[in-house]
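Quick check before the chapter quiz. The format below is the same one you will see on the exam, so make sure you can read both the input and the output lines.
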Amino acid sequence: MDSATSEARTPLGATADNGLKIVVVGGFGVGKTTLVRSVSEIRPLSTEETMTQAGAAIDDTDQVRGKAATTVAFDFGRITLDARNVLYLFGAPGQERFWFLWDRLFSGTLGAVVLVDTRRIDDSWYAIDRLEHHGTPFVVACNDFGGPVHAPEDVRAALDLDPRVPLVGCDARSRESAKQVLITLVRHVKNRYAVPSVPAAPPRQEFV
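Here is the expected output.
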């Protein structure tokens, strides 16, 4: 999938006080690199390498035959929220042989996006399992590959998804669509850690 990398990027501020980390995970070839590229305000740092015949013998490429490059460490992008806060985006590698990197990427993470190709639901289970193991808040985003549209309840059932986890559709090539996924995640994290309001104490009664 091609990313809209020709869009003008917003210049970075000189400093930021708070860096918030988000990880984008999912199966091989679901569009993680594309999403980071489309939404980042800087030219993303990418560790993509050309796929070779040697790699094809290890990775399952049956469903991604047009894929010519793959992430071997992580992708990195940045979004400025305001003068003091920025989001750092890390796109995790999708191949099973690189999954050992995921636990390190999850360290210190505000939350995660699990990107899903509904034609290959099984590829998403490991990501969800590891995030639940770490207690990391996450949302699930179904990337649009132009195939059949699945009802949200069918996707939830296939993923055995907790009803409290947001499920959204997206086009990883679209900057606006990718931004909406991140907004959904931030709202989910905020709601998860919201402190419940404490009822006001009843007026003190004086006894005479």
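If your answer matched, good. Strands lie at 18-26, 48-50, 69-71, 75-80, 85-91, 111-116, 138-143, 167-170.
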